[in-house]
Amino acid sequence: MKASGFDIIEQLKKPNFWLSAIAVGLTIIQLDLNWKFIGSIDALTLRGLFLTAILYLIWKKQHTLNLRSDLFWLFSTYYAKLINKMPIQ
User: Which residues of 44-65 are buried (b: 16+ CB within 10 A; e: fewer)?
Assistant: First the structure.
């Protein structure tokens, strides 16, 4: 019997997962550096509220967001074709 629910392998294949992981990591780094350099709980709280508002606005538009950039996909496919044509030494 296969357990239904969260399948990590399938999630790793989705760009939404990676975008969320990168966003969370950068947010944690930004808040940590803010705390270390400024040391003010007020500034940290204000930044946390600001980031929460941004996340809320992104969450509201999650179904209409286009996560594929034409320029990025153009360069990535060109690079993949270039790598495939290179002779193996």
Answer: eeebeeeeeeeeeeeeeeeeee
- Amino acid type, 71: L
Per-residue model confidence as pLDDT tens for the chain (89 residues): 455 667 777 777 777 778 888 888 988 898 888 888 888 888 888 888 998 898 888 888 878 876 666 666 666 766 666 666 655 54
Residues 6+ apart with CB under 8 A from 66: none
Alpha-carbon distance values, 66 to 7, 51, 75 (Å): 24, 21, 18
In the numeric block, which tokens belong to residue 73? 């996909």
Cα 50 from chain centroid (whole Å): 18
Q: pTM score, two decimals?
A: 0.55
Q: Look-up: residue for tokens 């290179």?
A: 86
